[in-house]
Design brief:
By secondary structure, the protein is α+β, with helices and mostly antiparallel strands. The chain has two domains: 168 residues, 60s Ribosomal Protein L30, Chain: A, CATH 3.30.1330; 251 residues, 2-methylcitrate dehydratase PrpD. It is built from 17 helices and ten strands. The strands form three sheets. The protein has a six-stranded mixed beta sheet with strand order 3-2-4-5-6-7. One of its GO terms (biological process) is L-cysteine catabolic process to pyruvate. It comes from Nitratidesulfovibrio vulgaris (strain DP4). Belongs to the UPF0597 family.
């Protein structure tokens, strides 16, 4: 597998929550194709995009929240060239104008069925023109750009089969058209076929350039964690836990540092984090526990980098099975599993111990629901970080899950398949109910 390609696409900086970031990105592209004053913006979102963007803070807005705000900010001042960081340079004057347009009812939002988990169609109307930009499959993947009914760009979508079983590809200007998940990139297909020993060996084989990039990403996320400790952003999970912890307690430090970083991100601080598998909170969970353990135990930068690589690879492996956005909390289950494996590497363990740690983590947290991105994600991230360390200790002592326990198996491939089926089939109804509880009708 091309490791450089994996890390370039799966581990990269993101500003704010990636769901409203994707909405803002699509809106900023739409604005390029729609001259004049905006008249209306309509959002058509998947269940997951709706719930993950509903209550999360938007960076640079003073704590304002939501996909609708992200969309109108993207239209007014988004920089499409910056992708998921399209709102990096907005100011309060733009925010005030955006709020005025929101209050006037300019933006509508609806949840649509039959689309991939990552799906947002932004339809912008201005004088004499209508533009629909759709992102799908990945947060920064532009599937289609449709201007006045004509497809002018985008990578295309995979249509769901017709009644006769035929498939039709290509872009559509219908936001509610039925589509399937786009195929995985080749590098993720390769990753899905790996066993754990191969993941372990790949992490050990990173080159000097990847080593430096991984350490840079960890430093970025640790800086965000320290912000959370100093000022108590959001729910103040990390700040509060730190105030009641012994400084020498590594387990507690792993928990409060990870929680603090998520506090900052969910509150909408204008500070980028290094993401993993398309999610900033996944990136925090995959990196901060490993970095804190490495710092506390005084291991070499090389060991830390290999541990970070393993964490991202395990996270990516599990997400390649489940999909980008799921009813199960991927920060806890996928990135938490990655962190457990990475911490075993920091502790000097081997591949067998790391795979057992992954199984133990998943046995603990597999049922944790994702009810959207919001301040309380800090609680889940802190829990996942703490459980990752506990699972790593069990692995190092050759304890934990060593035979099938419920739906969890010591073999990562078997458990990944079970997780994927539970997420896609078992928890699908739960996702729909959660969105109803969150008010996911058109408004």
């Amino acid at each position: 597998m091309d490791l450089a390609l994996f890390f370039r696409n799966e581990v990269k900086p993101a500003l704010g929550c990636t769901e409203p970031g994707a909405v803002a990105y699509a809106a900023s592209i739409a604005a390029r194709h729609c001259p004049g004053e905006p008249l209306s913006v309509a959002l058509s979102l998947s269940l997951s995009m709706f719930k993950n963007g509903r209550d999360v803070g938007i960076p640079g807005t003073g704590g304002l929240r939501g996909n609708r705000l992200a969309a109108v900010l993207g239209v007014l001042a988004g920089d499409a060239d910056k992708g998921l960081m399209a709102l990096e340079h907005i100011d309060m004057a733009v925010v005030e104008r955006a709020q005025t347009l929101l209050d006037a009812g300019m933006v509508t939002e609806e949840v649509v069925d039959g689309v991939p988990g990552v799906y947002a169609a932004v339809t912008l109307r201005c004088a004499g023109h209508e533009v629909t930009v759709t992102v799908a499959g990945r947060h920064d993947r532009v599937a289609s750009i449709v201007v006045d009914g004509e497809v002018v760009g985008g990578e295309g979508m995979e249509r769901a089969p017709e009644a006769d079983g035929t498939l039709h590809g290509g872009a559509s200007c219908e936001p509610s058209a039925s589509f399937t998940e786009p195929p995985l990139p080749a590098y993720l297909e390769e990753l899905r076929e790996c066993d754990f020993a191969q993941l372990w060996d790949m992490a050990a084989g990173i080159d000097a350039t990847l080593e430096q990039e991984l350490l840079r990403g960890a430093a970025m996320n640790m800086a965000v964690a320290r912000m959370g400790l100093e000022s108590g952003w959001g729910l103040g999970v990390g700040h509060t836990l730190a105030a009641h912890a012994e400084a020498a307690d590594l387990h507690a430090r792993i928990r409060f540092m990870a929680g603090a970083a998520a506090d900052v991100r969910m509150a909408g601080a204008p500070q980028p984090v290094m993401s993993s598998a398309g999610s900033g909170n996944h990136g925090i969970t995959a990196t901060v526990p490993v970095a804190v353990a490495a710092e506390g135990l005084g291991v070499s930068p090389r060991v830390q980098a290999e541990a970070l690589a393993l964490s991202h690879l395990v996270t990516g492996y599990l997400k390649a099975h489940t999909g980008r956005l799921t009813p199960i909390c991927g920060c806890s289950v996928a990135a938490g599993a990655g962190a457990a494996a990475g911490i075993v590497k920091v502790l000097g363990g081997n591949a067998v111990q790391a795979e057992r740690a992954v199984a133990s983590l998943m046995a603990s947290l597999m049922g944790m629901l994702c009810d959207g991105a919001k301040g309380s994600c800090g609680l889940k991230v802190a829990t996942a970080a703490g459980e990752a360390y506990a699972a790593a200790l069990l692995g190092m002592d050759d304890r934990g899950v060593q035979r099938p326990e419920g739906v969890v198996n010591p073999d990562i491939a078997t458990t990944a398949r079970a997780l994927a089926r539970l997420s896609r089939e078992g928890f699908a109804a739960a996702d729909a109910v959660m969105v109803e509880l969150l008010g996911g009708g058109k408004h």
